[in-house]
Amino acid sequence: MNYYCIILCGGNGKRLWPYSTNEIPKQFLKIYNDITLLQNTLDRIPNYFKKIFVTSGNFYQHIIKYVTGNDLLILEPYNKNTGPAIISACKFINNLSLSSKKESIITILPCDHILNNNFFYDFDDNVIPILFKKDIILYGKKPTYIETEYGYIVKDINNNIQKFIEKPNITMAEQLCNTNNVLWNMGIFIFSQSTINKLIKIYCNDMYDLIKFYNVKDNIFSIDEEYFYCDDIPFDKLVIEKHDNNYVIEYLGEWSDIGNWNRLHDVMKNKLDNDVMNVHIGNNIYDNDSNNILVFNNDENKKIYTIGLNNLILINTNKNILVVDKNKYNLVNDIIKNTQVILN
To answer: How many angstroms separate the Cα of 264 from the Cα of each of 14, 100, 149, 343?
Structure first.
């Protein structure tokens, strides 16, 4: 059996502004430790995976090759969401394995999530056998707070998926968080090559036929301009939510998508000590008598002094400064939506 991994690396950088930008989005930055989020993802993939495919936009070609080395890079001429990106990578795998008689198992991973490094520990023994009965395996995490930016999975007692709920309003999110059979959708998918080919023919064969590749150089391939005509749609909507033989594994380890600075603050507090409320990332940060603040300094030429602050996020880069009340962080998203220049 062959094992392939597809890493989705097409984010545009707005979720951790001003450190993360369109030019260098968060997956290429050192945030959680001393290596980039993409490198963290690559490092946790076991050696028995035959090939790793990284999908991303043309604009990030040189950054990704610096990180990925010999892994195969598939470049998208347009950002069309996770649906076309995954279908493209699956088609490339089909092209590679035309002469192979072995079944292949394909794992889809986001490039910028925090997971335990032993995520694949029991993969071969306990995860793969599920695919003999179920078509697609998803991973879910028990909600620990109310979140309107995540997708939710409703499952039955046997972990069969009953329903998907995408980005609910605050009232619905609160109800879901208090329901025992509900998990966050972690955006991790596992399926066999034969199964995904069957589902592509049912749900998105026209999209599959549109996708063509040409070799840029070495291990770098680009998708042809006809990719423009693919629908802009998540893989969940394109395939998974239309299908009814899906299974979810509840993930018990550490997980975060680091969707904003509030989430990073929570992750770092847990990493340091449960009693630690203030988190400093970077150098030249000095504090006196503040409580529950995150200070990030990426400018070596500046020192930051905080005194008596409470419930605050302060982000300093060599271009921009963001200061925001943790309880009003959602207003940052409004600014980003209304001001294009803010992502530079």
So the answer is: 15, 43, 15, 19
Query: In sequence order, what are the residues at sequence separation of 6 or more whose Cβ sits closer than 8 angstroms to the Cβ of residue 217?
Result: none
Instruction: Report the Cα 188 to chain-centroid distance in Å.
Output: 8
Dihedral, CA atoms, 18, 24, 25, 30, nearest 10 degrees? -80
List own/partner pairs for 326-334 with CB under 8 A and 24 or more apart. 326/262, 326/265, 326/292, 326/294, 329/260, 329/261, 329/262, 332/17, 332/260
For the chain (length 344 residues), average pLDDT per consecutive 10? 92 84 90 89 91 92 76 91 96 82 91 88 87 95 92 96 94 94 96 96 96 89 94 95 95 90 89 76 93 94 95 94 92 74 54
Structure token pair of residue 254: 């550490």
Strand 104-110 and strand 246-250: pairing?
unpaired
**For residue 230, which of 250, 246, 213, 210 has the smallest C-alpha distance?**
210
Asked whether 245 and 98 are in contact (CB, 8 A), the reply is no
**Domain co-membership, 9 together with 99:** yes
- What DSSP state is assigned to residue 102? S
Q: Which of 236, 256, 276 is the last residue of a domain?
A: 256
**Residues 276 and 201 grouped into a single domain:** no
